[in-house]
Design goal:
With 410 residues, the protein is of the alpha+beta class. It is built from 10 helices and 17 strands. Helix content is 31%, strand content 22%. The strands form 4 sheets. An 8-stranded mixed sheet has the order 1-2-8-3-9-16-10-15, covered by helices on one side. The chain has a 4-stranded antiparallel sheet with strand order 12-13-11-14, with helices on one face. A 3-stranded antiparallel sheet has the order 4-7-17. α1 crosses α3, α3 packs across α10 and α8 packs across α10. The radius of gyration is 23 Å and the shape is globular.
Length: 410
């Protein structure tokens, strides 16, 4: 096993599942455990100005070894794993040479990782894979990114012949619950621009993400005995179903891909007396994003006209926005990342993020931050897997980015 794989396997032993119901930062104690370990490891490998905030944000510096002309660049990853699946007692499996067939993750439970459902597996035929045992997630999102950054920094320290400018490193909690950079001090970090290492498969490079909004709907009904309900009962759950039916089915996430946005029902709790629904709205295009929000409001207005004023209330709150316009003025970030990948024998794949990243929020905080691949697939669940070569290639990419900015400044 290589150094970066050893690191990754060490990090996934710490349960860092985040918790959206928690009011603390980090939201779970396991995250603080790993973040403290990372702060100590940064010191041990020779990074400087290592700090960990009360909210768990770790920052460190690799000093440059050339003139001050080189820009200060940053690499950022998050330590938490998704609350959607257990991250306790992860037992990774190593497939030493994937043969292109089904992988039985858990015989007793009948859980199989198959290229029929996950055709991207076939891209890695003949390569080593790390998988789950079918009872937990794996944690490549984003402990692979953490391991890759740490290993790249250690490599640069061991190879001073590679000329580079000052590099900043950041590790954050709670990205999976949307709080990843709530307590990130951009001024203290001190980078001119940065990369998150939090993407998917080999070669992925992302600088476009969704515009995002959250929607909360509350419906008031009137519950009377069904035997005497005529012209009296107002069934809040049925009105909730009516609202869902008004929204275009073609715009549900299970029917969209690429640059297509969606409106996604995430929660439905109802009785006759009351009903609450939650939605998320996503679109890369701002005009289409605004149109989806307006359509939601129009549907609610229609139901209030039909069932009476105040029957349905809605709250629509913007969450984050597409970082494209923030990154385009620093497009050298994309060009340099592409060159760094090609030097590592990787074909770059510039794709839109069908989600959000810490980089999107950081970009609007004044730190342009596109997203680099970390190597994993099928995140947030028991089918998660990562080719070990992809993790190793990500280290090469990070080292190459540092070297390229150093060469340009020399």
């Amino acid at each position: 096993m290589s150094v970066v794989i050893d690191r990754f396997l060490k990090y996934i032993k710490v349960d860092t599942k985040s918790d959206s119901d928690s009011k603390t930062s980090p939201s779970t104690p396991g995250q603080f455990t790993l973040l403290r370990q990372l702060a100590e490891e940064c010191k041990a490998i020779g990074l400087q100005d290592v700090s960990i905030s009360e909210q768990g944000v770790v920052m460190a510096t690799l000093p440059g070894n050339i003139s001050d002309k080189a820009p200060v660049i940053g690499f950022i990853a998050h330590v938490d794993t998704s609350p959607d699946m257990s991250g306790t007692d992860i037992k990774p499996r190593l497939i030493e040479e994937y043969d292109g067939e089904d992988i039985v993750l858990n015989q007793a439970a009948g859980i199989v990782l198959s290229p029929r459902e996950f055709p991207e597996l076939l891209h890695y035929k003949g390569q080593p894979l790390l998988t789950t045992d079918g009872t937990t997630l794996l944690g490549a999102d984003d402990k692979a990114g953490v391991a890759e950054i740490m290993t790249a920094m250690e490599y640069l320290l061991a190879h001073p012949e590679i000329k580079h400018g000052t590099i900043k490193v950041g590790f954050t909690p709670d990205e999976e619950i949307g709080r990843g950079v709530d307590n990130f001090d951009v001024a203290k970090f001190g980078a001119e621009f940065a990369y998150t290492v939090d993407g998917g498969g080999l070669g992925e490079l992302e600088f476009e993400n969704f515009n995002a909004a959250g929607v909360k709907v509350s419906i008031k009904g009137r519950n009377v005995h069904p035997g005497t309900a005529k012209d009296r009962m107002i069934n809040a759950s049925l009105i909730g179903m009516e609202l869902v039916a008004l929204l275009p089915a073609v715009q549900r996430p299970e029917h969209t891909e690429g640059y297509e946005g969606f409106t996604h029902l995430t929660r439905f709790n109802g009785t006759v007396e009351e009903c609450s629904l939650g939605f998320i709205i996503r679109d890369h295009d701002m005009d289409k994003f605004n149109a989806k929000k307006a359509f939601m409001q129009k549907a609610v207005d229609f139901l209030n006209e039909k069932h009476g004023p105040g029957t349905v209330t809605v709250s629509i709150s913007d969450s984050y926005f597409n970082m494209r316009e923030q990154v385009l003025p620093a497009y050298h970030l994309i060009e340099t990342a592409q060159e760094a990948m090609r030097k590592a024998g990787i074909e770059p794949k510039v794709i839109p993020v069908r989600g959000g990243t810490d980089g999107a929020r950081l970009s609007f905080m004044g730190l342009p931050t596109p997203n680099l691949f970390a190597g994993g697939h099928a995140f947030h669940g028991k089918y998660e897997f990562v080719p070990t070569r992809s993790i190793e290639k990500a280290v090469d990419m990070i080292v190459n980015i540092a070297a390229l900015y150093g060469e340009k400044a020399a």
